[in-house]
Request: fold
Amino acid sequence: MNVRAPLPNSFGEQLDLEKLSSRGQNPREATIFVGYDAREPIATYVCIHSLQKYAKKLFPLSILRLDKVESILTRGQHELQSTEFAFSRFLVPYLSNFEGFSVFLDSDFLFKGDICDLLDSVDPTKAVSVVKHDYEPKTESKFLNQKQTKYERKNWSSLMIFNNPLCRALSPRVVNESSGLYLHRFKWLDDEEIGEIDLSWNYLVGEYPSNTTKKVNAFHYTLGGPYFDDCKTSEFADLWFDDFSEMKAPLK
Reply:
């Protein structure tokens, strides 16, 4: 195991990670951040609509727009970057002042379960919790004819529950200067610091067979949402359009 040195806080003092993880923080009090891409804004709003519809309680919620963090995220667009929030997602702990818990979601999620149940299942001693997908993409391209990249731990970062005090490694400098693989493969943590979420909360539409899980709590249209012309008839597209119709009522 690689043992990391204690992390300094903003005053140069050494942080005791064990104390930080035992402060009695409640994942149910998390702030939720949803990705936003100007090419598919409707995805963000339908995702939020579905999340709020099933949640038992209200949550502080923020739309992670790139134009709102451009003074912090100064790195340029990478040629393999498929969304505007490919890197800004890793700023969530910093944007949360490294306090409490925060959730990041890709915009192309559709909830069918109560996110409170997800948060109740989180191990609060872990720095971050994710669905630990173990698969290789079936296609060579995805939405908007973008290249499908294949790498270890793909889609782990599409849904992350951050224990923010334990994610101080994600400073703006690290997020701006590190490679995409370093960030998305969670090389900024030791493996034992990564908690696991049930696959039902990040069901990869078009990648997993329908019998992968007994219940789907959140569909993830990772190959392209039904709002794209070439994905309108994709698997489970009807479910997305049902929520879209609810959200835009009474507009036709």
Notes: The first strand starts at residue 31 and ends at 35. The chain has one domain: 17-246. Confidence is low (pLDDT under 50) at residues 1-24. The longest helix spans residues 41-54.
